Amino acid sequence: MRVTLAQTALYCAWASVALAFPTEDDGLYNFLSRRALSPDNTCGNLFNAEYCTDPDCQFAFGTCDSSHTPAGPTTLNDPRPLLGQVTYDNDIYDCVQNNVVALTYDDGPYLYTSQLLDILKSYGFKATFFITGNNLHKGPIDETAPYPDLIKRMVAEGHQVASHTWSHYSLSNIPSDVRKQQMVKNERAIANIIGKYPTYMRPPYSQCDQASGCWADMKALGYHRVYFDLDTQDYLNPNTIQNSKDIVKQILGTPGATDYLSIQHDIVQQSVANLTYYYFDLIKNKGWKGVTAGECLNDGPANWYRTPGGSTAAPIPPSTSIKASTTSKTTTTTSKTTSKASTTTPKSSTSSTSKTSTSTKVFVVAAAAPTPTSGPECVVQAGQFCGTVSDFSDKQGCKVSAANCYLQALNCPKEAGKGHRNECNHYTNTCQKLNTYCTKCKDTCSKSGFKM
User: Fold this and answer.
1) Which residue has the higher pLDDT, 339 or 63?
2) Partner of 186 at 20 to 30 A CA spacing, among 14, 100, 201, 447?
3) Partner residues linked to 160 by β-bridges
4) Could you tell me which residues come within 8 angstroms of residue 422 by beta carbon, excluding any fewer than 6 positions away?
């Protein structure tokens, strides 16, 4: 069918009227409600499904990927005891174990996930897959081949399945009831495949703040909020993956570093088929290994999941925020102090080993980061984006500043707009340099000592 400009204009006029004054008996409104508007509320979607595809779909104005509900009873009212000893109160940025890289992959499963599983198997590495349930027009994961088989394979081969929400919405920018549905729909779909659902999640766009109620909702649903301290930037370099190779080489070569929690995306073909081999070789040659997020936090697999209607692991008191483990070692006494944080939460961890054959690594999260009295100047400014480096005067503050920098960098492409890729890459490189500086600066960390 050929569509004239007049027909499109007429449809837009009808749409604006029908959506402004809907009634249950309005046949035109009922027809239009099966379609969704574009992000700028235009009507170009009548003959194009693009804007019915999440995460860009305007769900308030029509049917989106997220509108689909998986078969089976909702998990919304399931009991949610807090399992294990990893914090549910604070954002998680790094590992407790040494000599590991927690390998995590967002946005799948997708076309390249099977190849990634083959590569992981060949290296003997494990990973955590933060999966979305129904976005990118790929279809519901529990109903659309080959996704159920891929997710079953993840579990069978020792990987960790975690949640990246149902349709990849910003959790800070949607109401609480929609936010919870984004989680429980993904739970139901995952449970339909493997008979259980995750206790680990990563917020899309790294957006889940306290002010919006997202922290409270995630804890009420029994989720650990997991971020990262090594950003491969594969999503920024789908056709220039050498940039990501340079990033991982530089960061893994940082003197004094003992672990990383990294992020890749198995929807990026070059990240899977090219970067992964290079990255894994670097990890292996360093004498480290690739592990799941749960393993890097010394959290047992029994705590990674819940079963619909109940729980399979023993709960701990809700106030627990200390991560401890005991292992046997025979080395001389050493110590390590690191910290990582979000815009509001610094995290510090201390480890020690001794000749007494017992070592304990404690994961402690402070309540809130210091709030600067005045906002820092833009390091990079492009479009609506202002990338800053917050002030700091010690190692912990340095890590907080670096974590804030990473979170801002994730928003640069969207806020800066088209034509500002170089500026966003420059700012992200500044964050990488800052993170390296924090590792090296010991007790003399200061913003004035950081050369941008």
Assistant:
1) 63
2) 100
3) 128
4) none
Q: Write down the catalytic residue from 107, 265, 266, 299.
A: 265
Which tops the pLDDT comparison, 377 or 359? 377
35: left (phi over 0), alpha (psi -120 to 50) or beta: beta
Q: pTM, whole model, 2 decimals?
A: 0.67
Q: Which DSSP string corresponds to 29-70?
A: HHHHTTS---TT---GGGG-GGGGSTTT--GGGS--GGG---
Query: E strand or H helix at 414, and its extent?
Result: helix 395-416
pLDDT band for position 447 (50/70/90)?
confident
CA-closest candidate to residue 198, choices 331, 63, 292: 292
Q: Strand, helix or coil at 16?
A: helix
CB 210 within 8 A of CB 342: no
Indicate if 259 belongs to the active site. no
pLDDT at position 424: 84
Beta bridge partners of 105: 129, 264
**Which of the following is catalytic: 65, 94, 106, 209?**
106
Q: Classify residue 449 as left (phi > 0), alpha (psi -120 to 50) or beta.
A: alpha
For 61, list phi and psi in degrees, rounded to 5.
-115, 10
**Is 164 noted as a catalytic residue in this protein?**
no
State the Cα–Cα distance between residues 264 and 82, nearest whole angstrom: 28
